[in-house]
Amino acid sequence: MSVGCLGVVLFLAPSFILLLECVVAWLRRYLSRGCSSLVSTISWFEASSLSRRGCACGIQSERMGDDPVDRDARIVFSIGVKQEGDAEDLFIDLLGLVLDHHRGLLFVVDSHFHRVQVLSYDGDDGFSFVSKFGEEGSQPGQLKYPWDVAIDHDHDRILIVDQLNDRVQSWSLSEQSFISCIGQHGTGDLEFYYPRGIAIDKHHRRIIIVDSDNHRLVFLSIDFSFLFSVGKKGSRPGELYFPSNIAIDDDRHRIIVTDTENHRVQVLSSIDGSFLFEFGSKGGDPNKFMYPHSVCIANQGRIIVADSGNNRLQAFTHDGHHISSFECGNQPSGVAFDEHRGLIVFSASNQLNVIGANQWLPDTFTWRVDRHRHAPPWIKQAVSTMTMIRSLVDESALSMIPNEILFEIFSFL
Questions:
Q1: Any residues with CB less than 8 A from the CB of 204 and at least 6 apart, and which?
Q2: Could you tell me the pTM of the whole model?
Q3: Spatial distance between the Cα atoms of 161 and 263, rounded to a whole number of angstroms
């Protein structure tokens, strides 16, 4: 660099820092008012870049201009196509989703084809096909319209709700091979009637199954021994009417249940299944539902509900107050939260869609040292650019800003 250029840089550095501080302060005030338009605008470049280079994976990507999701810059990528077929790059009737953070995998229940698909994913390039397992049938290791899936890392297994076979199957997580199954049709302790949801309560070492057409939740020990059940058909607090899905709020020892035919969400104690509170009623306004399907817990205990009949996701605080809605175009069926990258993944019809970090809900991604590699691409690029500029300005205030502070600054953009 010439002496003249270096002088200009040194002269402008203090002004640049002051300008940056003003911008960040303004952004703090702007975002604190709950405005998401800026986030959408800033994410335009990232979304446009992804759409130009395409999804770097074996799964086909399709954009349809008449779908609101296709025009939403907050969707960083979508996978799946709308025509039918049985290849690994096609989906029909996607239901349950679960993320394996340890291996960087997404398990997707591909119900129409009676199987589970396994996709590899990262925050920058989307998904790629890894494997699939399951086939139609009623024998051990076969599936019939599976509905949901859960991961038990402590025992290296995947638990699959085998809906039309009225049972739950256990598969090896590392080898993706069948281990065992439990359940049969009925109303008894270890009997089910179209089960549709499953979750693992890590604190109490329990498996909780949504026994949908028996209008109850069934609590099992980690080795599949029956413990107790809660719920019966009805609309009063603690009663259920065709529930579909549950999520566990580990921090608050609570179970979140989509009480589908009652068009509401119920919150129960994970200790004994007792009723705590409920929110929602039938309708299309915020805080109302039409056949809520699935649910997941995001950071800060926020509750995200796939409001299927209203073609949207709805987000709520941990105590059930409405935050925001996200229009999905088609009926969303499954939803999952990536706690490391801050992504929200949802299934709708034959496609998976991914909402970028901090693009719909604020602060889904918060930077920490151990999350450096999971930062959104635009934050990485911004910090990289600042670091490059800083390297040219020796012994200036700009050169003294640590990368940690840069990440904190750009996490607001």
A1: 270, 271
A2: 0.78
A3: 23
CB 116 within 8 A of CB 123: no
What's the sign of the alpha-carbon dihedral 352, 357, 362, 364?
positive
Does one domain contain both 187 and 217? yes
> Are 289 and 147 in a shared domain?
yes
- 257 in the same domain as 233: yes
Q: Are residues 199 and 325 in the same domain?
A: yes
For the chain, state the CA radius of gyration: 23
The CA distance from 243 to 186, in Å, is 17
Angle at the Cα of 308 from the Cα atoms of 306 and 312, rounded to 5 degrees: 65
Distance CA 175, CA 316 (A): 37
Q: Is 340 a member of any domain?
A: yes
- The string of pLDDT tens digits covering residues 207-219 is 999 999 999 999 9
Residue type, 235: S
Mean pLDDT of 96-124: 87
> Are the beta carbons of 80 and 90 closer than 8 angstroms?
yes
In sequence order, what E strands does 3-74 have? none
Distance between CA 89 and CA 98 in Å, rounded? 18
CA 252 to chain centroid: 19
Amino acid at 292: P
**Which three-class secondary structure state does DSSP give residue 25?**
helix
pLDDT in tens, 338-387: 988 889 999 987 889 999 989 999 989 876 666 666 666 666 676 667 66
Three-class secondary structure of residue 133 per DSSP: strand
